């Protein structure tokens, strides 16, 4: 049974592409097949760092978005990771409603996991509340990603009505650990996958490679709690 991961958050700069990339690396390191779709036409971050796994999709172009459904039908055992652009909810919502996407995916036997990536600002909290209201009783599980790279404290969120509503609707909450700022910048300039950063001596020094490995271990512990286990891998090269 395929799982379709929509990586959203609506607000720009909260770390949606970072989340999509670490989820992709998690799949690669666990030898699990997936197809990536990059819905951020402006930055193309997902497809830039994981070019062998992700292809562009245009939110607002029905024919382009229909490719997501066609991918599920063609290979119902392969999971999908869709990195959504900021401020794409209106165009995306129209496609979801007009095609009754959630019902169709359910009919195809696919699970849907919606990831709300957030910083510690009030906008992210309000957007989560809007998302929860929109999803309502749809066959969708929600993952709330508190990105520590974009916020020092999520205490106000944990005291909010959005938090209580998320808990009541069965949403899972995880934390994405903060990645060293200079390392993040160096990764961006090198267009490197996380595997390459952790292992390639030509790209990073020994301390930087170690920081990457530590960060991935921390992130993977969080992902273990929300990503359904796949089949046992025959081998694990970890390469990307």
What would your notes on this structure say?
- The protein has 240 residues and is of the alpha/beta class.
- The protein contains eleven helices and seven strands.
- The protein has helices spanning 16-29, 45-49, 62-74, 89-99, 101-107, 122-135, 155-158, 161-168, 181-190, 194-199, 206-224; strands spanning 3-8, 34-38, 54-56, 79-83, 111-118, 141-147, 172-176.
- It has a seven-stranded parallel sheet, sandwiched between helices.
- Helix 6 links the parallel strand 5 (111-118) and strand 6.
- Helix 6 (122-135) packs parallel to helix 8 (161-168).
- The longest helix has 19 residues, at 206-224.
- It is globular and about 50 Å long.
- Residues 233-237 have low confidence and may be disordered.
Question: Quick summary of this structure?
Answer:
With 240 residues, the protein is α/β, with parallel strands linked by helices. Helix content is 46%, strand content 16%. It has helices at 16-29, 45-49, 62-74, 89-99, 101-107, 122-135, 155-158, 161-168, 181-190, 194-199, 206-224, and strands spanning 3-8, 34-38, 54-56, 79-83, 111-118, 141-147, 172-176.
Question: Which key features would you list for this structure?
Answer:
240 residues; 11 helices
Q: In DSSP terms, counting alpha (H) and pi (I) runs of 4 or more, how many helices? A: 11
* Series of H and E elements: EHEHEHEHHEHEHHEHHH
Number of strands: 7
| Mean pLDDT across all amino acids | 93
């Amino acid at each position: 049974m395929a799982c379709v991961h929509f990586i959203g958050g609506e607000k720009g700069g909260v770390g949606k592409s970072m989340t999509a990339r670490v989820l992709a690396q998690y799949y690669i390191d666990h030898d699990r097949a997936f197809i990536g779709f990059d819905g951020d036409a402006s930055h193309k971050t997902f497809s830039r760092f994981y070019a062998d796994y992700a292809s562009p999709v245009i939110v607002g172009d029905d024919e382009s978005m229909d490719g997501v459904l066609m991918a599920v039908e063609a290979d119902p055992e392969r999971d999908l990771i869709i990195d959504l652009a900021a401020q794409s909810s209106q165009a995306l919502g129209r496609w979801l409603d007009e095609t009754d996407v959630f019902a169709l995916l359910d009919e195809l036997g696919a699970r849907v996991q919606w990831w709300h990536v957030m910083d510690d600002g009030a906008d992210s909290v309000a957007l989560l509340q809007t998302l929860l209201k929109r999803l309502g009783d749809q066959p969708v599980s929600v993952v709330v990603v508190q990105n520590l790279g974009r916020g020092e404290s999520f205490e106000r969120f944990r005291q909010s009505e959005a938090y209580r509503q998320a808990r009541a609707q069965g949403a899972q909450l995880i934390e994405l650990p903060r990645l060293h700022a200079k390392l993040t910048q160096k990764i961006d300039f090198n267009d490197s996958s996380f595997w390459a950063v952790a292992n390639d001596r030509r790209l990073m020094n020994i301390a930087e490679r170690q920081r990457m490995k530590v960060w991935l271990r921390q992130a993977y512990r969080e992902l273990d709690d929300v990503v359904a286990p796949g089949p046992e891998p025959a081998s694990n090269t970890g390469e990307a």
